[in-house]
Amino acid sequence: MLKARKIILDCDPGHDDAIALLMAAANPKIELVGVTTVAGNSTIEKTTLNAQKVCELAGIHVPIAQGASRPLVREQVTASSIHGESGLDGPSLPTPTKPLLEIDAVDFIIQTLSQSDEKITLVPVGPLTNIALAIRKEPKILDKIEEIVFMGGGRFGNWTPAAEFNIYVDAEAAQIVLDSGVPITMVGLDLTHQAIATKAIQQQIAQIDHKVARFVVELLEFFSETYKEVFGFEGAPIHDACCVAYCIDPDVFTTSHLRVDVETNGQFTYGMTVIDLHGVTKRAANVHVAMELNQDKFWSLMLDTLQNYR
Amino acid sequence: MKPVFIDVDTGVDDALALLFALQSPLLDVIGISTVSGNVHVDHTYRNTLAVLDIAQAPDIPVARGMDAPLIRPLHTAAEIHGESGFGDIQLPEVVRNGVEEHGVDLMIRKVKESPEPVTLILLGPLTNMAVALKKEPSIQDNIRELVIMGGAGAKGGNVTPVAEFNIYVDPDAAHVVFSSGLPIRLVTWDVCMQAVLHPEENMQLKETQTPVAQYAYRLIQFLRDNNDETFLCDPSAVCAVIDESVIQTEVLPVEVETQEGLTRGMTIIDVRPFLQVDPADPRPKLQVAMNIERERFSQLFIQTLLQQG
């Protein structure tokens, strides 16, 4: 068997972040080196606490480091309409017993990468603030990045008509990441809106007899409610889990190698990922853009991974 | 017959759109204004007169309009259309004369004089229309609707990854026109990419010995892509007026990005699934074309061009 892929999950839990975290910690094809948090779905205090609580509940023992409390340039925006006041409303969660790391997320990323003999994959599923800061603070880490697999962007938006939430929150950080020159896979709304946790999927998860599976069901119940209320969706897309699924099995979706840049100026388009589908810019491709999800692979991979908690 | 006024930046596909409109027994073309876009207005004006000669069109007034966008320098597509706008296709010497009146004034006058409300078919950058609306706002009272070839949705643009040429060239004019409150149907680049003519369909034109069919055949040959298919962009907008039912639309909020960034000239069409079109939402609501029934379109186009004048 191949060696497990080392990843750092950078997240802002967040319902779909929590599922991504649970998947990353329980699949043998992944070695979760650490979890870093960022302000996004809610404030940094809340996303950090939520990450700790999820790890506590599921018995995940990995270092957790708190990251940036606000975007590089703009004012902070949060998504309480989707994730609730706590950032992870719905399920009841235990109080964390393990402390955070003393160093912050940016330094944790830099140290971990610098000290590692192998390359490590970064999986940011929130705004890209921490990753941009780490790249800028210590550019040498670029040589140690296997790949950046991020959730964000798309050909259409959710937070605004043109922009997806994570990129909208910190478009400047996103552009820094896209310009980094390392291999990048972008998991945008085009892909994640194919990963809808329908009632049928929720029932399959509910059949797993374990508290983690029950927790996932509770997450999905709450998330589906707000997604229906706010976005008119039947069943919630579990965006962030798609990135982790790709790290487990790159065949879980197809990609196209394209030029992608971020609009940081627009009046109506701030935070949009401008994807050059037809090559009109004649600029070199910099991103592998996720295109089509293999439904069978994705859901069985997710269910199998959750089974590992039994 | 429906009174229509056409604004063009002729251009090969504008020429096909003009032939389509002039040949249609359902449309009464009451005037044509020309604008800088594909190429400079000096060329689009001349080209338009030549197309009318070819069509042996009756004496329809044609006027030279705005030679540059409202605010920005002109950006043409001469690299695609050639300096003259017609690539290597020779147009005959122009016989007829245009009118001395400015294109914007012709548009205003023709709309005001019409006994019934006028449909405007806008096939280039929206500069003339924007200036007309600002110069004489009362024309709004006698406009039935604007049918615009412009903008792009999720399938992407043709001049940048997200912007379509006509809107990119003069986004400020597009903003003025979109916010006018007039009923607007927007035939986007996405839909144009469905409006394809197959080579065997074009053969019907080749085999017909009328000047219109012969010219249309050559223009279509000029536009064909590597697969021998031809996308008929501007003619789709004319089709939307001749037979509305061929193009399905949805009412959606649309804004134009006017900032000079990566997304200049993008039409931001809000297709988010949760969106209820809220009457309090201040954004312009346009009828955005979502789909064109290709076969009905190509049939209508070919049959109309085959008609004897």
From TrEMBL, chain A:
<dbReference type="InterPro" id="IPR023186">
    <property type="entry name" value="IUNH"/>
</dbReference>
<dbReference type="GO" id="GO:0005829">
    <property type="term" value="C:cytosol"/>
</dbReference>
<dbReference type="GO" id="GO:0006152">
    <property type="term" value="P:purine nucleoside catabolic process"/>
</dbReference>
<dbReference type="GO" id="GO:0045437">
    <property type="term" value="F:uridine nucleosidase activity"/>
</dbReference>
<dbReference type="GO" id="GO:0008477">
    <property type="term" value="F:purine nucleosidase activity"/>
</dbReference>
<dbReference type="InterPro" id="IPR001910">
    <property type="entry name" value="Inosine/uridine_hydrolase_dom"/>
</dbReference>
<protein>
    <submittedName>
        <fullName>Purine nucleosidase</fullName>
    </submittedName>
</protein>
<dbReference type="Pfam" id="PF01156">
    <property type="entry name" value="IU_nuc_hydro"/>
</dbReference>
<keyword id="KW-0326">Glycosidase</keyword>
<feature type="domain" description="Inosine/uridine-preferring nucleoside hydrolase">
    <location>
        <begin position="7"/>
        <end position="299"/>
    </location>
</feature>
<dbReference type="InterPro" id="IPR036452">
    <property type="entry name" value="Ribo_hydro-like"/>
</dbReference>
<keyword id="KW-0378">Hydrolase</keyword>
<dbReference type="InterPro" id="IPR015910">
    <property type="entry name" value="I/U_nuclsd_hydro_CS"/>
</dbReference>
From TrEMBL, chain B:
<dbReference type="InterPro" id="IPR023186">
    <property type="entry name" value="IUNH"/>
</dbReference>
<keyword id="KW-0326">Glycosidase</keyword>
<dbReference type="InterPro" id="IPR036452">
    <property type="entry name" value="Ribo_hydro-like"/>
</dbReference>
<feature type="domain" description="Inosine/uridine-preferring nucleoside hydrolase">
    <location>
        <begin position="4"/>
        <end position="298"/>
    </location>
</feature>
<dbReference type="InterPro" id="IPR001910">
    <property type="entry name" value="Inosine/uridine_hydrolase_dom"/>
</dbReference>
<keyword id="KW-0378">Hydrolase</keyword>
<dbReference type="GO" id="GO:0005829">
    <property type="term" value="C:cytosol"/>
</dbReference>
<dbReference type="Pfam" id="PF01156">
    <property type="entry name" value="IU_nuc_hydro"/>
</dbReference>
<dbReference type="GO" id="GO:0006152">
    <property type="term" value="P:purine nucleoside catabolic process"/>
</dbReference>
<protein>
    <submittedName>
        <fullName>Purine nucleosidase/pyrimidine-specific ribonucleoside hydrolase</fullName>
    </submittedName>
</protein>
<dbReference type="GO" id="GO:0008477">
    <property type="term" value="F:purine nucleosidase activity"/>
</dbReference>
